[in-house]
Sequence to fold (134 residues):
Amino acid sequence: MGRVVLGGLLAGLVVNISETILNLFVLTAEMDALLKARNLPALSGSAIGGFIFLAFVLGIVTIWLYAAIRPRFGPGPKTALIAALFVWFFAYLYSGTATVLMGMYPLNVAAVGTIWGLVEIVLGSIAGAWVYTE
Fold:
């Protein structure tokens, strides 16, 4: 379990770095406009802290899944990719689609975040799987 947590923390770090780049440089203007259009304040430190914490939890869950499916699919990047795709579907694609269907985000913003998320969770999963050993 220690290696799951260690690999998961590395995966979470990759996700956190990626999300920082996405939100500070790629989608800054779009997110600011969305918050203003809904009369919401900018994200506070506690909300940002919550997102950071959840990204680490997501990384740990991803590597836990990698460890769980590794006996069936074997160790390595292919299995890390399978785990990442599973997590991406439920954590990124499902929620991104839901925000569009509810009218909370426009399609272009959700699409960028969802595609960006695919790359970050795959890279995080591969990095975390590299640390994980049985």
About this structure: The mean pLDDT is 96. The helical segments are 2-26, 28-37, 45-73, 77-101, 107-131. Residues 30 and 109 are 7 Å apart (CA to CA).
